[in-house]
Design goal:
Elements lengths: L33 H15 L3 H13 L3 H12 L8 H13 L3 H13 L7 H13 L3 H13 L7 H13 L3 H13 L7 H13 L5 H9 L7
């Protein structure tokens, strides 16, 4: 069975963020002071209320002060064409600054934009460098992207052991597709030692989380083999 058929790529999307997501110390964005966090919160409220000009002014001021979440949010507004003379080149520079500042969401979004050609020609090599940073920082979506890249050899060296590693991280993070894929890899012995006990374990978790195909796999594994004639 080709495990990859269970995985579909997430479409490019943007979100306005209030604060940085989880990141390890090596990549963590600096903690915001209470005053700066308050400014960021008010800017997000302005954006969500449709006051885009006010939000832009606030995000620009915070971005100039090096606040990664503001750099990211301003990039999102450019990518969504929510600003007069929206500029994708500027969006890329802002996303890069936010990513370099340790903002995990920006790291993932920059990687996804590079993979999908949002800034022009696709750059899979650079995309996967940022996916790896985001994956190491705890982004489940980036972990799935790393697993997919290694599984298919797309933008990365084909390496089923690395694919299994990243699918396992994403599975532990709750990604249902990764849970099913990891189970299939244990069932088939792809990149890991074949282990039907672990295959059943991950199929059961995927089933409990709503995967439609996992219950059938559980029944298949639980059915004793027919006696030899």
């Amino acid at each position: 069975m080709n495990a990859y058929r269970r995985r579909t790529m997430m479409p490019f999307a943007c979100w306005i963020c209030v604060a940085a997501l989880l990141a390890p110390p090596a990549f963590a964005a600096p903690a915001l002071s209470e005053a700066v966090q308050g400014e960021l919160d008010r800017a997000v409220v302005a954006y969500e209320s449709g006051r885009h000009a006010e939000a832009r002014t606030a995000f620009e001021a915070l971005a100039l002060r090096g606040v990664p979440a503001a750099q990211y949010n301003l990039a999102v507004m450019h990518l969504r064409d929510e600003l007069p003379q929206a500029d994708r080149g500027l969006a890329r520079r802002l996303l890069t600054r936010a990513a370099e500042g340790g903002f995990v969401t920006a790291q993932f979004m920059l990687a996804q934009a590079l993979e999908n050609g949002e800034f022009g020609a696709r750059d899979l090599a650079l995309a996967h460098r940022w996916y790896e940073v985001a994956a190491t920082g705890g982004s489940v979506d980036a972990q799935v992207a790393m697993g997919t890249g290694h599984y298919l050899g797309r933008g990365l060296k084909k390496d089923l052991a690395q694919a299994a590693h990243w699918f396992r991280e994403a599975a532990k993070g709750g990604d249902v597709g990764a849970q099913y894929l990891l189970a299939s890899m244990y069932e088939q012995g792809d990149g890991v030692e074949r282990d039907l006990r672990l295959a059943r374990y991950w199929y059961a978790i995927a089933a409990s989380n709503g995967d439609e195909a996992a219950p059938a796999k559980l029944r298949q594994l639980d059915t004793p083999p027919a006696p030899a004639r």
